[in-house]
């Protein structure tokens, strides 16, 4: 079954951003400009906890299903929010172009995203403006490159057969 | 003082019954092998099994590893328990350097011994690239029986003194590979092929 | 002379034991000095910044308190050894002596030498810090009915 | 090897804590916690930073990766004034294993082995959340056989017990009650022995797989579980006498590491830390998965948000898990333990010799792996440390295109600076222990 049923015009919208459904879960697709405004509305709308903020690199993806009107970029920031009172969840997917990997930081809305944004910066190289302390968090300081990008090899060392020495 | 049964009370003549003589070197080797303290270098899942080995059920206090000393100044054996990441490698080398002599290294688990299932950019493929390893304990995580087997093998090497000669000469580890013992509910008997050393054989 | 023999023997044994342990460790322990061994141990990190020389004064105050009581014990020790011969008067004299020390201790503590951190903080949470609070009294059990909103839908 | 001059360096430059004169005002506010949607007045009341503290008054010390009480390789840089902790900055990454990159190289069948090594205190919960995410992608999450669902609940609750028992052990040892370490491990060995009997391994089981569980329960499992359940309440009462009734224990934990409800929510913490502040949020009850809605249990909620509450929550959660496991024992149905969908489950070993088709299926599943339709999904369950989530993006191939695990400890560690401010260094140890971080899932 096609997981995202494309309803006829006009598409379902939430706070002016396109809404879609993935395996029964609500997903919002704002553009980078609408991103912070949407997040502020969601925060005031009861989503008090930002469960997760991560990114995905769609360089070699065969083709993802996005509601039309969203042009697919290479990077995608994925934010999962939770509403404690109404007990529901929402996922926000924002496209970030490869040419300018920069997006606004959610630190002022949810201070809990500080470490998650540092991890995304460390692993993908997407920088967040307005972040208090944008430095690497997982990799050593002098590490070059961003490991979770698709064009970064896994760094597998071919197994060198060392003669058994015992 | 009461008369001790069947001990020849012939003054200086009974000297050899009342004293044990031996080389100081044997005494030192025996004491080193029987009270070697481990340094807490628990990194990942193997650290939980290492704590389990220190726990009441497997209890390596029986083998002299009564306590895990956190500071390298008071530790003899550093058990590298878990996967060593690129960021942790210099820290491991620094802690190893700061340990007092004589010191030995047990590489616990396949991740420490050879990178294990994580053959990628983040994990050091084998601890022997930065510290001389004496005993490799296989398993992911090695069962407490395997770790005790590794510790006992190292104790046996210390008691023979063979490992000290090797370290004095080249500073390299003994590189002993032991076989894994799956966890059992009944007690395990392991023969180390322990030759009867001279002075204990009387 | 005979009665001082044990004292003499004990001092010789003490010195002997001390010297023996030094000589033994020098002879038997393998020596491989390295700069890392001389460096201070900071949890495996090579220290880059020098620790400051000046330490807060609260450390010294506690040290002073210890020395004060230590010296007090030294004075009480000769009394304690031959307490029987000295009788009641010496006892009360010693008592007065230790009361004077104790007053100094009370003064220093009252001036706040010993509350470094949590005491002030605990005052902020005064009802939380209580002796009667047990591991079952401090929690409340929220079943399905205790949900903030009242709809029971899963 | 001649004595190697230590030419390498271990400091992490920009990641480390710098003196207050060198960093931006926003970062100071972050570290002091005033940015947590608190009004300026509240920040002022939080305990003033000594305004005239010139640099040599305070000392930046390193509670580094190799430290007995940092529960693994967490490194904290503390700025101390005497014994008082002014600022704290956690530095992590010392156990970064590149698991998310490795996850992209393993098929869905092998993914469990990678995921189970993240939170090594409750490996079965990791496998559960990974399997549920894959099943939701496959669209088969509703037709998992009943026995498999109940077995998953049984194992994840027993895993919660063994994880909380280790918390009691390490919490006791961190605060000086070393004998608690021995007691905690004595009980945990019983549960590990049961796991070994069922899954074959004491840890890192790879037992809960997409489509159900790897094998059926061995005969005689019921009375093994019953012996554990009958033994535990008596031992927990023993711990209560040993620890809770002890004034030193209460003195060390009460009023230490206090966090308010909106601070906890703003930081995104979950699990016992969030519940200790009074917010009743437990995914098993609020967003039930498996059969948690058919099981009767209570959610334990604290009231003061300090380290004592978190200890009390965890010790009572073991009692709740015992209650749940009793009900699971009654409700355990018979039947097959794995979905009979040929695409996902390899055929039983005996059938391979008989039918060619079974051999092909077996071969395809184990070499190339089963294909998962394209899409992305986020599934979250309640692990002993909080909400553990698994976000998988699949491009229709046999391997996950992107797998991200939302680790509760990674987020809970951010609450450390806010809990430690103003306490003593000894309180820092109590606070780390009350958060119970597992560095395997923090650094992934």
Automatic annotation (TrEMBL), chain B:
One of its GO terms (molecular function) is 4 iron, 4 sulfur cluster binding. Keywords: NAD, Translocase, Transport. Pfam families: Oxidored_q6. The keyword NAD applies. The keyword Transport applies. One of its GO terms (cellular component) is respiratory chain complex I. SUPFAM superfamilies: HydA/Nqo6-like (SSF56770). Gene3D superfamilies: 3.40.50.12280. GO terms for biological process: aerobic respiration; electron transport coupled proton transport. Residues 45-153 form the NADH:ubiquinone oxidoreductase-like 20kDa subunit domain. PANTHER family: NADH DEHYDROGENASE, NADH DEHYDROGENASE [UBIQUINONE] IRON-SULFUR PROTEIN 7, MITOCHONDRIAL. NCBIfam families: nuoB_fam, PRK06411.1. Belongs to the complex I 20 kDa subunit family. HAMAP family: NDH1_NuoB. This is Unannotated protein. It comes from freshwater metagenome.
